[in-house]
Design a protein that fits this description.
Elements: H1 2-5, E1 11-14, H2 26-41, E2 45-48, H3 51-61, E3 66-67, H4 83-88, E4 96-100, H5 109-117, E5 124-128, H6 135-143, E6 149-153, H7 157-166, E7 169-172, H8 181-188, E8 193-196, H9 199-205, E9 210-212, H10 217-229, H11 238-248, H12 251-267
Parallel strand pairs: 1-2, 2-3, 4-5, 4-7, 5-6, 7-8, 8-9
Length: about 270
């Protein structure tokens, strides 16, 4: 608000509806909703990272928004960096299911653990991520696991590259999202993806991923059984998934679009 009083130009980018997260108490959610209303009214330009957010702000606040999705760079796939990291965790190529993300309730990791427990598989489940003001939730997850579940904490660089590159498939069981960057990363490796059927996932994956009913551990388990028994049942293919990212979620294109907005706002 202060920049508005000082007659400064304002551009706001909305990455999600923070008040929907269960990690916030009621007082915090009231404050976050107030911030959302302010963000809809005061900026010279309001950017959103998903079509569902664009629809939300248009319907609720009748304000103009500009859609610029998150972006990633396509990785180089032929390297063997991070092999020692996999070995140190007891992981073998294509012998593990991967989740990457913050360990907070809305990411649905508890559903994934419940579904995995019902599988009869020799593959491991790798959880790459850590707490985000959610230590109690993380402890609950870790107390519900067995030796076939590997918690790696936050992973970056070559080690994360190796996890994505050598996973059998990636699972994204989120209950709500803005624009899931880790989903874009998985697709940039051409990885097979199983995701909850929320609009934000469908917007990105389209026909290049498999879906399960959001919040249903039973359906997630059934879909995992199917995909583990026959990977050929996956929709799409690796090259098409990479093309999907390059054409629609390029970081270079996102930067160019944002730069254009900043220039127009300053000029006006």
């Amino acid at each position: 608000i202060l920049p508005k009083f000082l007659r400064k130009k304002i551009v706001i980018t909305v990455h999600g509806l923070a008040w929907q997260s269960d990690k916030w108490n009621q007082l915090a959610k009231i404050y976050l909703k107030w911030g959302e209303r302010v963000s809809a009214r005061i900026p010279d330009s309001l950017v959103v990272v998903s079509q569902s957010l664009k629809t939300y702000f248009q319907d609720k606040y009748h304000c103009k928004t500009i859609y610029i999705p998150n972006g990633v760079n396509l990785p180089f796939l032929n390297g063997n960096q991070g092999v020692e990291f996999l070995r140190s965790r007891g992981l073998k190529e294509k012998e593990y299911i991967l989740f990457v993300g913050r360990l907070v309730p809305e990411k649905g990791v508890h559903l994934l653990l419940e579904a995995f427990r019902n599988l009869k598989t020799e593959k491991k489940l790798v959880i790459a991520g850590g707490s985000s003001y959610s230590d109690d939730y993380v402890r609950e997850l870790q107390n519900r696991t067995d030796p076939s579940v590997v918690f790696c904490g936050y992973v970056y660089g070559e080690e994360l590259d190796s996890l994505y590159r050598d996973a059998y498939l990636c699972v994204f069981p989120s209950l709500l999202e803005g624009m899931p960057l880790t989903l874009l990363e998985a697709l940039s490796y051409g990885q097979a993806v199983l995701a909850s059927d929320i609009p934000e996932h469908r917007e990105v994956l389209k026909d290049q991923g498999a879906y399960f009913h959001s919040q249903s551990a039973a359906d997630l388990s059934e879909k995992l059984k199917l995909l583990l028994s026959d990977k050929n049942s996956f929709p799409g293919n690796p090259s098409t998934r990479r093309d999907l990212v390059a054409q629609n979620f390029s970081w270079d294109k996102a930067v160019d679009a944002l730069e254009t907005i900043y220039r127009e706002v300053l000029k006006n």
